[in-house]
Design a protein that fits this description.
The structure holds 2 protein chains of 2 kinds. Chain A is built from 15 helices and 22 strands. In chain A, helix 11 links the parallel strand 15 and strand 16. In chain A, strands 1, 8, 9, 10, 11, 12, 13, 14, 15, 16, 17 and 18 form a 12-stranded mixed sheet that branches. Chain A has a 4-stranded antiparallel sheet with strand order 4-5-7-6, with helices on one face. A two-stranded antiparallel ribbon of chain A has the order 2-3. In chain A, 47% of the residues are buried. By secondary structure, chain A is α+β, with helices and mostly antiparallel strands. Helices cover 30% and strands 24% of the residues of chain A. Chain B is mainly alpha-helical. Chain B has a single domain, classed as MetI-like fold, CATH 1.10.3720. Chain B is 72% helix and 0% strand. Chain B is elongated and about 75 Å long. Classes of the chains: A alpha+beta, B mainly alpha. The interface between A and B is medium-sized, with 23 and 19 residues.
Chain lengths: 509, 277
Amino acid sequence: MKKIRFISFLVCAVLFAGTLGGCSPATTKGPELVVATGTDASTFDPHFTTDSATEVLNKNLYNNLVKFTADMQIVPDLATKWDLAQDGVTWTFELRRGVKFHDGTAFNAQAVKACFERLLDKNTGSPRRSVLEMIKEIQPVDEYKVKIVTAYPCGSFLQQLAHPVAAIISPAAIKKYGKDLARNPVGTGPFKLAEWVSGEKIVMDRNPDYFEGAPQVQRVVFRIVPEDATRAMLIESGQVDVALRLPVTELQRLRTNKDLNLIETPTLMTMYVALNNQRGALRDVRVRQAINYAVDKDVLLKDILGGLGTVADAPISSATWGYAKIGAYPCDRAKAKDLLAGAGYGNGVELELWTPVGRYLMDRQVAENLQAQLAEVGIKVKIRQWEFQSLMAEVKKGQFDMVLLGWSPSTGDADQGLFPVFHSTQWPPGSNRAHYKNPQVDSLLEKAKQEVNPETRKSMYAQAEKLIMDEAAWLFLYYPKQVVVTRANVKGIEVLPAEHIIFGKVQKG
Amino acid sequence: MRRPCSRRFFKNPSALVGGIILGFLVIVSVVGPAVVPYSPYKQDTSIKLRGPYAEHWLGTDEFGRDVLSRLVLGSRYSLSAGFVSVGMGLAGGLLLGAPAGYYGGLIDQMVMLLCDILLAFPGVLLSLAITMALGPGIYTPMVAVGISSIPVFARLVRAQFLSLRNAQFVEAARSQGASDARIVFKHLLPNSIGPLVVQSTLRMGSAILTTATLSFLGQGAQPPEPEWGAMLNMAVPYFWTAPHLVILPGLAITITVIAVNLLGDALRDFADPRTRE
């Protein structure tokens, strides 16, 4: 009996402690910023970061040589000036003076060399090594000047350097921690990592010596709250200052709340359905065009996505360098039926559509709406829902009709936006999931990659984009927007199209 | 004078209520889809997420589809899930349990070992593992639940046969030279039917619930099929904005399971000589 009483006491105590933990003290007081995010960091080592949720965190800890602005221009970051020699492959960067890493190590040309060499060393095993693989040589000229030679003239080199994987890491930390950089990030950014409790929170303290001026907030606390509705509740009740990645259903409600601000910005992402160009009915360009004509993208955007996006009128988004407005397929179901009839599918055709669940904004709903829209022209779609990781593993095998995906070129450049998804050498397991092949497009993409004259490059990409649209390699859908919700008193968050969110200049009124 | 069996049975209130609800559901699932005013698949996103109103009695879902029409068609999946999975479990159980109970020995040991292994897994977990292996689809959860009910039925059949195989009437049949098959089908099976019917009915409730669970987890019916569990799953993001999408399929599942269980309980009481008046 005594034992039972003791156990029940214990249970009560644990439950009580649990409730206390739930109502943690009012976190918005004091000069700290609390951010509710849906996903934990995977690693703080930029060389091993592949997900945009972690990139957001890294961008507040590290700097690159150059960075993007809100309109995707390249501006100085740790490099103040740069110059490309006549040969088209030798770049010289002047580095910012007097910058120190969080561990006190001085930032200089040697640091750049050590960091990039780690990334390029195949033994490091970085999954994003390809971003800077064109680098042949890194030579420090003096303390604050570094020369980088690329293997071929690379038109998007500066954009590659602004990619999160090209963040500059403290050379002392690389030596000291090696693989353990994942939990011990040392950069030059506005914040330094103070605490990481996996699955619970990430705390960053401000860097008082930050070269652009110390942040006004003492610290940023990222609370990991996987449940969408809970994140919405936290921002509504003022328990957090910022909420990331809220679903459309919640945003529509929050929009009317006067205590909240919704920061809506375009992204680099194109949402599309990869039509397997080498399989069954989809081999026929008329069928692929019919699919594009059959879908009313405006309905999709307005009714399913709550207006959070714009219709895709090119294979890459308008925020991406090299975008050319080609024009979207209008919704014309009569024409779609004619095209299908012409291709010999007047009596309809059956196709399978794979969709991830919970990876993209309203992904399952989009798939289900596409199913209904395509049924209008006699295309019978069978949906298969997947968890994202298993979907990607299966997509790599290439045995599918159609798959709903998003492509976001994180360098903000058409090379990354087009080459991996449309060049014929990139078929699965590569990213050309549509198995698209057009020798003309191949050659344009190859030439543009090595062209350093921006105007010539742009016109090459415009030609390629036109061909890709005309051949309906994908079902082109829309460019989703990203939305960051803040309390009305929070100002100065930088939300960039590359899905970088920077808190260095945040003010809390 | 003894009243007809059915009359006596339905004097039991739980049998009456369960029977009426289940009967209603069967009728709905058979004729309902033909008489509902809207197609359960037709999307009209301009009227999405509306609560009940004159034109759509039970409101519309996230694509503006009519919830009533979808619930009605969904009853078909849930009821057939109950029958199919219990039928599979029963068939499998007979196939394994009958020889085990009748012959005993090595066969018995092997079958019981297999059953013990299967029963060691919690039902939902086992079903989930089977659906993962089969891939999602509308019949997958039915098959999975069916397979995971086999050991339950196998043990019951074995126990029945074990207790009956040395009964006097079986001895008598055997002494007259009846074959094993004749003894099993003519004597053992008819005498075990009562407990089997009771077990089947009771099992049906949990089978419907488990199939709905599997669909809720995305392993069952795929869009746009209006399986109740799948409808619930779809409704989760709208818990606050359109609660009817959560409440209605939930209610449908609850009522169906309660009806089947009421009937099962009544059958058990009826079949049990100790509780029969």
